[in-house]
C-alpha cells in the first residue's frame, strides 16, 4: 500500500494492490477500483467498446480494435478498467 498526499487541500488517498492487477483507491467516503489487464475477455472488450461508443469526448483510438491494429506493428496494449 502507498499513500498519496495532496498538499494543496490536505486530503490523502490510500492505494492498495492485490497482486493480480487490481488496485483499490480510497479517499474520504469514495472507493474506486482500477483493474489492469493485458488480455481482457471478448465480453469485457465488447462492454468497453459500447461504453466508448455511447459517451461524448471519446474517439476511435479508445476502441479495442485500435489496440489490435497497433499490436500488428509491435505495440503491446495494457488495459485499465
Give a brief outline of the structure.
The chain is an alpha+beta fold. It is built from two helices and five strands, in the order ββββααβ.
Shape: globular
Task: Write down the secondary-structure element order.
Answer: EEEEHHE
Q: Calculate the terminal CA-CA distance, rounded to whole Å.
A: 19 Å
Residue runs with pLDDT of under 50 for 5 or more positions: 1-11
The number of distinct β-strands equals: 5
Helix content: 25-40%
Instruction: Give the rounded overall mean pLDDT.
Output: 76
Profile the largest sheet: 5 strands, antiparallel
Number of helices: 2
Strand content: 25-35%
Properties at a glance:
about 80 residues; alpha+beta; globular; disordered N terminus
Amino acid at each position: 500500500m502507498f499513500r498519496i498526499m495532496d498538499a494543496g487541500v490536505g486530503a490523502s488517498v490510500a492505494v492498495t494492490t492485490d497482486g493480480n492487477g487490481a488496485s483499490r483507491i480510497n479517499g474520504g467516503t469514495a472507493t474506486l477500483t482500477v483493474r489492469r489487464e493485458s488480455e481482457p475477455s471478448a465480453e469485457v472488450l465488447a462492454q468497453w467498446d459500447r461504453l466508448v461508443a455511447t459517451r461524448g469526448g471519446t474517439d476511435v483510438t479508445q476502441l479495442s480494435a485500435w489496440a489490435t491494429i497497433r499490436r500488428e506493428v509491435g505495440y503491446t496494449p495494457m488495459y485499465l478498467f
